[in-house]
Design goal:
binds ligand C2E; globular; 8-stranded mixed barrel; binds calcium ion; Diguanylate cyclase (GGDEF)-like protein/PAS domain S-box-containing protein
Amino acid sequence: AKAAGRNAFCLFSPALQEVIDTRSSLEAALRHGLNRAEFQLYYQPQFSLDHGLIGAEALLRWSPGQHPSVSPAVFIPVAEESGLILRLGQWVMHSACEQLVRWAQQPLTRDLKIAINVSARQFHRPDFAARVRSALEATGANPSRLQLELTESVVLEKVGEVVERMQQIRQLGVTFSLDDFGTGFSSLSYLKQLPLDQIKIDQSFVHDLMSSGNDAAIVRAIVAIGRSLGLQVIAEGVETQDQLVYLTSMDCRVFQGYLLGRPVPMRDWQSAWHNWQQP
Ligand code: C2E
Ligand code: CA
Ligand code: CA
Ligand code: CA
């Protein structure tokens, strides 16, 4: 409920509960939603101190029927359990690639990248690399503009296989980010093995940065580790100017968060652009 308030999402409105009841499960409602085009992508801008706007993270939204958006925190786990995440993830990848192609036609947006979230189940499909390749080929998107965000749950087991798959996909020109960094367990041991381009400091550390000396120390350490491994380090969940200044003083140079810009549907991207506050 806390997350719901923060993101102005409705978790389970009575109306949605009704939809779910009549469809017997959230899973059935999701399946129905996939067939009815009830999903859309919101895009949240990412900024670097050196280059200004560098791209966006694509974030999935689901609006069942006339009802308000349901948080991905609610439906992604269900989609993962039921296997629906495979179709959903495929749809996300195609939509993001199509957006890249539209951006490629405008000088102002030509160099921007789009990061998409890839679930463990999606990544571990034997044909995942082939699916990335065919999404790029079918749409004509520039592979170097596509970034895949993996969480530690993806890379937890069989590091060798994960590395091999990542390398296959990187050969296409696609880049990788390790999401929610610092929240897992064995981060450091495999960090040096993974062919990454970016690590993303989890927003929980950014959230408590100003009040918790421990979190500040962790952020400082993550930036240093990322730097020494030659990785881009991005902080997400940046909500205040104080956080931004502090992160900058720690030599973090890439940011994402409500302070700079909220996730918006692409139709609002142009108008939102004017309100973004470049760091
Ligand atoms: P995530 O990948 O860690 O995404 C960041 C979340 O933080 C997003 O929540 C975003 O809207 C939110 N956020 C951004 N800036 C701020 C800020 O300044 N303050 C706060 N408090 N929050 C901020 P969202 O969109 O609700 O997504 C939640 C999670 O759902 C994502 O976490 C990701 O794990 C998952 N998800 C979203 N879209 C997809 C998708 O297409 N595929 C998969 N597999 N998972 C997705
Ligand atoms: Ca993410
Ligand atoms: Ca994250
Ligand atoms: Ca997360």
